[in-house]
Amino acid sequence: MSSVVTMTSCFLAYIDRLKPVLYNMFKHTRKERDTMPKPSTVRQTAYDSKHCRFYGLKLNLETDSDIIGKLASVDSMQGYIKQLIRDDIRAETEHSKHQEK
Q: What is the pLDDT of residue 67?
């Protein structure tokens, strides 16, 4: 009988320690919990705001169809655009070096 009492008291002590955790889990409604950012999303957003920049590109389906077609044909649109920009920077740098001579 004493082992049952000991187990019961241990269980009750365990439940007492869990009360704050359980309260925090259930203090918000399901809708509030679903709209709250997850910790991994918060960390990713913090990293992105410190280390990344986003540049959007709006293209017209009629006047920019050649660009849209080209971007659709490459494996990585982001990689393709970055490489074009780096090639342009390299060409400008080489051009300015030749003008200085």
A: 96
